[in-house]
Design a protein that fits this description.
By secondary structure, this protein is mainly α. The chain has 2 domains: 233 residues, HUPs (Rossmann fold); 94 residues, Tyrosyl-Transfer RNA Synthetase (Orthogonal Bundle). The protein is 57% helix and 6% strand. The chain is built from 17 helices and 5 strands. The chain has a 3-stranded parallel sheet. It has a two-stranded parallel sheet with strand order 4-5. α1 links the parallel β1 and β2. α8 packs across α9. It starts with a strand and ends with a helix. The mean pLDDT is 96. The protein binds tryptophan (TRP). Tryptophan binds next to β1 and α8.
Length: 366
Amino acid sequence: MKNIILTGDRPTGRLHLGHYVGSLKRRVELQNSGKFDEINILIADDQALTDNADNPGKIRDNIVNVVLDYLSVGIDPAKTTICVQSALPALHALTFYYLNLVTTARLSRNPTIKAEIQMRGFTDEGLPAGFFTYPVSQTADITAFDANVVPVGEDQLPMLEQAREIVEKFNKIYGETLVLPTAMIPENEVQRRLPGVDGKAKMSKSLGNCIYLSDTAATVKKQVNGKMYTDPLHLQISDPGHTEGNVVFTYLDAFCTDAHFAEYLPDYANLDEMKEHYRRGGLGDGVCKKFLINVLEETLSPVRNERAKWENDIGSVYDIISEGTAKAVEKTNETLARVRRAMKINYFEDRSIIKEWEQLLKKAGQ
Ligand code: TRP
């Protein structure tokens, strides 16, 4: 069996550091690991429309932002296929067939959908059917690419569970046709859930607590110095401080290496020593924030430079997604043909059905 990855993002905004530690960084590692036969990233614009039907312009604008974010962190279109969901008609057809394999009761129980409905304040009257059923469309995304590995955030586990159920049901009814996918979730807590700079929740645009991959150095500095939550009990430098729940240290956990200490803060050999000092008292937040800004800049400045190059060449960005999508059209159409054959609804693939129908009618007439 081939090793195939499919993952995706809704193009509803620029990507931030939470996306970087939670998924982008690993996508690049997986891409460069040489362990996969195919890697596909889907820009899920149709899925984004399920709760943005009145604002397609927002989705249209953010397709380019998201692709720029991919390219600037090191997604290489020679190794990874980047494609646009709405241009893959096979996904729509597959969704329609899979919808028959789930019940509305089962969809209502999906905990991620439940949480998302609540977050958006949808009442029964206001809940778009497309949004309610997007786990089924996501199953179409995954199976259309024959993906066996699906790197996603923890919140997407219920989607994968539902996808597996649909695959199992399909294969049971129509014969072994679809590949059973497995979720690959981030390894550690920091990767799973990088808090916003305010320390309250995950990064989210509406809370204004994000650091975007495309932010300028000045903005990053402002977010860290002006907004980053530390330890409210650490009033004097000499006071003992807490590193748990202290966003500066959470971010250092996610981003800093021993090499960063050698370069920017040689008083300590590593993060453990620095934390130790903070807990003991005598290490000020200003020093910690300054170090974090240096660490973040080391990650972000190459990303920013790479982005600037692509921003000056949007024609090439267009070609990349256009070529990736053309490739994905072929692949997903092949899967759809296989599915239709399994379901015996491939009427127009060959004319042998004429014989079949003729015999049927002859028998009925006897
Ligand atoms: N629902 C995913 C998210 O919000 C995005 C997505 C769409 C996706 N299609 C997918 C992820 C297929 C993995 C596989 O993050």
